[in-house]
Amino acid sequence: MLAFAIFIVTLILVIWQPKGLGIGWSAIGGALVALVFGVVQWSDVGIVWDIVWDATFTFVALIIISLILDEAGFFGWAALHVARLGNGRGRLLFPMIVLLGAFISAFFANDGAALLLTPIVIAILLRLDFAPKSALAFIIATGFIADTASLPLVTSNLVNIVSANYFDIGFGRYAAVMVPVNIVSVLATLLVLWIAYARHIPKRYSMANLSSPQSAIKDPLVFRAAFPLLALLLIAYFATESLGLVISVVTSAAALILMAIAGRWWQGGRDAKFSMTNILKKAPWQIVLFSIGMYLVVYGLGNAGLTAYGAQILNWLGQQGALVATVGTGFLSAIVASVMNNMPSTLIGALAIDSAQVPAATRELIIYANVIGNDLGPKFTPIGSLATLLWLHVLAEKDYKISWGQYMKVGLLITPPVLLATLLALVFWLPLLPSV
Predict the structure, then answer these.
(1) Does the predicted model carry a pTM greater than 0.85?
(2) Angle, helices 2-16/22-36, rounded to nearest 10 degrees
(3) Residue pLDDT, tens place only, 242-261
(4) DSSP reduced 3-state for 130
(5) Which of 19, 305, 308, 366 is least surrounded, with the fewest CB atoms within 10 Å of its CB?
(6) Total domains, the chain
(7) What is the pLDDT of residues 159-181, one digit of tens each?
């Protein structure tokens, strides 16, 4: 009960974010209380840090890359291109915005998609003079696709990185399993969103107020470097896997290269279009504190018996066959993530899987089902993921306020069918791949 009480208070502070405290210091405070009361030991700090450090610094590096590209106008250029390719047809623009969100989520992580794409889409909707209900359809789509399309690569979500590192899944193996599964997730999301919002999407829109995509580009040098650098980064993830290089090293190298280009380091910063200092200030350094702090608090829950309970449930699910084990694990992870946030939920799930006694084939299925549940399941509630909290914060800053009741009504409508379709795709696809 003590471990649970510490967790609840810490989670409330993380969600509430009292002024000056932030998610990082709130989580560190909870971890210190857990250490003082013996819920976790100092030896656990090293164990937890070993689990989270690579994921944490990979995430920070990806956000730095995203912020630089955003300042350079890369995402604005892409969104304006999509708006023009829609050619004045609202029912073509809607799926194109969803697919743009899926692309950004895959390569720049779900938090990057929520943080960067949302204000750009809102700005375009204002220029297109969409009615409030029409604008809401596009805004909801942008927020939901950020998480539901964050499956394909290890780097697409912090959940993926933590899980892949914990279970020693290589970048190539993970992509081989999850890229096809992610395609199903994106298509299912698009279908469900279409059923829910098609009647609100305008048939036509005027393109008279749309700027040229080129006008969005603020740093041509960074813009020209973006595509080759991203392609090299993706190749490097696969190429360095056999060398044992951790993902954060590869991602940080790409971030440094982009910082050097944007900051014009070879000429002492002359002609730089924006400040690297400001970019680094915007980077999510609080995530470093949050990762170690929150995971220590959750590790305390595991020590107190939650891991054992989870393992018992997984053992029972594992005895019911591959289908029940996969779908059951996915929905269980989703429910836990929606209540306690997907980051701590991921660790609880991983610890429980590690303790469960199930056949090897079933074990691999439930490992990926735990990832899917923690990537998609947070959409049940506003507190389920940091990406959703970021998205709601961005909307509030733009005077688009969505209440928790409104959000959960949409989340409970959209998430279950998408989650079920994605888990069924995993059950079908994974057995077709060579075992490892």
Answers:
(1) yes
(2) 170
(3) 787 888 999 999 999 999 99
(4) coil
(5) 19
(6) 1
(7) 899 899 999 999 999 999 999 99
